[in-house]
Write a structure and sequence with these properties.
Blueprint (H helix, E strand, L loop, with lengths): L1 E3 L1 H4 L3 H8 L5 E3 L10 E3 L7 E3 L5 E6 L19 E7 L7 E13 L2 E6 L2
């Protein structure tokens, strides 16, 4: 079993799978940074993670938007679209541009599920 943040695998996931074989399982720890933990895994061997609503205040800039003037909140995200994560932490870090691009791939209950979008 290998424990790994989804960031460390990115597009190399399938290549890594060829070296490890099908008997090795991957446990994704979610999307993390020094600022905080943003998501957690749903299933073994699946890079899709669910955002944690209470960890930080989330805002999202649509990937195609040129400016940060009209940020979206968690409830406004659309499946199939990519967004840059902007975080405000409980410790006072305000509107930190994480430069993490997330692709919304589904929903777990009412909360968006995402993968890292390179």
């Amino acid at each position: 079993m290998m424990v790994c943040d989804v960031d460390c695998l990115g597009p190399s996931f399938e290549l890594l799978r060829t070296y490890c074989g099908r008997n090795v399982h991957f446990i994704f720890t979610g999307i993390n940074s020094a600022v905080g933990t943003f998501s957690t895994a749903l299933n073994i061997d699946d890079p899709q993670t669910v955002l944690i609503p209470d960890s930080v205040f989330y805002e999202f800039k649509p990937k195609e938007a040129p400016h940060y003037s009209q940020l979206l909140t968690l409830d406004q995200l659309e499946i199939g679209r990519s967004y840059e994560l902007v975080a405000t932490t409980l410790s006072g870090l305000y509107r930190y541009k994480t430069q993490k691009s997330l692709l919304v791939v589904g929903r777990y209950h009412d909360t968006p599920t995402v993968i890292i979008d390179k």
